[in-house]
Amino acid sequence: MRAFKAFKSIAIPIPLKNIDTDMIIPAQFLTRVTKEGFGENLFQRLRENDKNFPLNLKKYINAKIIIADENFGCGSSREHAAWALVEYGIKVIIAPSFADIFKSNSAKNGLVLIELEREKVKNLLDKAAKENLMIFVDLKNQIIEVGNEKVKFIFDEFTKECILKGIDDLGFLLERLKQIKEFKKEREKNLFYKTDGWNN
Amino acid sequence: MAKNIIEKIWDEHVVLQEKGKPAIFGIDLHLIHEVTSAQAFSVLRERKLNFFEPHRALATVDHSIPTRLNRHEIFDEMAKKQIETLRKNVKDYNIPFYDMDSGNQGIVHVVGPELGLTQPGMTIVCGDSHTSTHGAFGAIAFGIGTTEVSHVMATSCILQKPSKTMKVNFKGKMKKEIFSKDLILALIAKIGVGGANSYIIEYTGEAIKDMSMEARMTICNMSIECGARAGLIGPDEITIEYLKGRSFSPKNEEFERAKKYWLSLQSDKNCKYDKEIEINVDDLEPMVTWGTNPEQCIKISEKIPYIKDLPESARNIAEKSLDYTKLKEGQNIKGVTIDYAFIGSCTNGRIEDLRIAANILKGRKVHKNVKMLITPGSEAVRDIAKIEGLYKIFIDAGAEFRMPGCSMCLGMNDDKVPSGKRCISSTNRNFVGRQGTGSITHLASPALVSASAIEGKITNPKKFL
Description:
The complex is a heterodimer of chains A (200) and B (465).
Chain A: E1 7-14, H1 21-24, H2 44-49, E2 65-68, H3 80-88, E3 92-95, H4 100-108, E4 112-115, H5 118-130, E5 134-138, E6 143-146, E7 149-152, H6 157-165, H7 170-174, H8 177-187
Parallel strand pairs in A: 1-2, 2-3, 3-4
Antiparallel strand pairs in A: 1-5, 5-6, 6-7
Chain B: H1 5-12, E1 14-16, E2 23-26, E3 29-32, H2 38-47, E4 57-60, H3 77-92, E5 97-98, H4 108-114, E6 123-126, E7 140-143, H5 146-155, E8 157-160, E9 164-171, H6 180-191, E10 199-204, H7 206-209, H8 213-221, E11 230-232, H9 237-243, H10 252-264, E12 275-280, E13 287-289, E14 297-299, H11 312-325, E15 340-343, H12 345-348, H13 351-361, E16 371-374, H14 379-387, H15 390-397, E17 400-401, E18 422-425, E19 440-443, H16 446-455
Parallel strand pairs in B: 3-4, 3-6, 4-5, 6-7, 9-10, 9-12, 10-11, 15-16, 15-18, 16-17, 18-19
Antiparallel strand pairs in B: 1-2, 2-8, 13-14
Helix pairs in contact in B: 2-5, 6-8, 13-15, 13-16
């Protein structure tokens, strides 16, 4: 995961509610055993069914930002959705809300999800549909700039630190293995199954 | 302070909470399948990490395997590689593994409960959003992405922020044509596919109290379809009865000790929730979806809503959905012609679901224009179905009885609904292309699926019961 730096990009408007992970990456592409190779199939069905789907348009070829309606990323827990977006080149998604598991998967891959009020997102969607909308994203200061307008957004501190440094949070867990072991020992008292003791 | 069951289980699993940091949350059982684990095992290898608790994990194959009789022959080279990768990984890391023909292979969320691995008070994760199924036992169970899968492999923990809590009360008694699938679809229709985002739900009420474990699992399974992190039901005597004598359940005195702990996991009388919702079950009818997400769902006697009657934010998606499902606003959902009928999946692939289907299909024939697939949730379910004679009922009716797996629920293997064809399905998602590119899905209970398969059109199961 690369460290996140402030950048400016044209924004792709996808004015749909409930964009699910099957739309982002259909199940038929999930048989890969690496994290690579998903980007080319990003939004495959939508691209296939609609030649005017934004990702089919030349002007968005290098776009790094998507604007969408509420509950983006609902459905399956497949991290392949986040991998596909990141590999395609998307760095930021702006929407009124995101599904829980997708939110966590995005954070683990340095994909920045910005939640803004629905009215604000709707304005951005309308603008982006009419003109080439350039947006500047500054995660460190939690600000996006659209033209002369600056919009603050809320972002989880811990996730921000990880994304800005480009580190994942496994290290945080591994540093605390001693406490985890103590917890596990205590927890054994109320756990009544064990799967060990048999051969594969 | 009075606590609800969600808060109780949550608190018992917080390993460490540092200021300004997410909580370190302990995981009791990690379920593994072929599609979301390979990249996580790679993390262990790259970082030279051990699998922290192999005895608190279980792996099986379900998503990408064929459900043909000769399923060992896998024609899809990538799927084959994915399955072989899992076989190698479980061997290298000494993970208990139920492969095909072990007698216990199946959809991971069917296997866990039927083996007695899923027990009250536990935290369970899997790289699959329908992990919420296990909540039926009074466990906090939820789906995670592959990076988190690697975290659980390496530490038996993940980082979490506490969820809000929601109580859903199913009030009243279920009529004979109403099944737990109808209850959960009614909830999703009411609150929407994002209605429970960032919540964990506790399901309660008269209807839940009377319900079998299988039926409860169907409800908890679809918690994710309204956005909930997880959904659970407080353990009771029905839970205890189900767990008695299962392979991984404790025995004798140990069972008595476990029972005491399990039954202690109840929401306190004066506990609070962040949100409460009530669904009146008395008024319910069999439910069926008309669109391309599970909230686009109506009672069987209702007409597909007029676009203008929908809230503004739901209109453009409804138009697109109807365009895709080739239906019209104001049209009756009852009587819509179908081409395929599917019973199976982690939502409705358990033995009770097959019994419900067999009860309707017995002595009847699947309509000549309909292809019906029945995929048991596990090898154990398939074995019981054979012993009970359900197998013969299905074959005599003209349905195909397949080998266990996720099958046509998500079309990762060869089991696909062809483009433009319409399927009535006991599964969990009716997303665009979910059952194959261009496929049209209507979600419903196994009873409604079976009745519709006989009639060749979407049908209320009432007259067959």
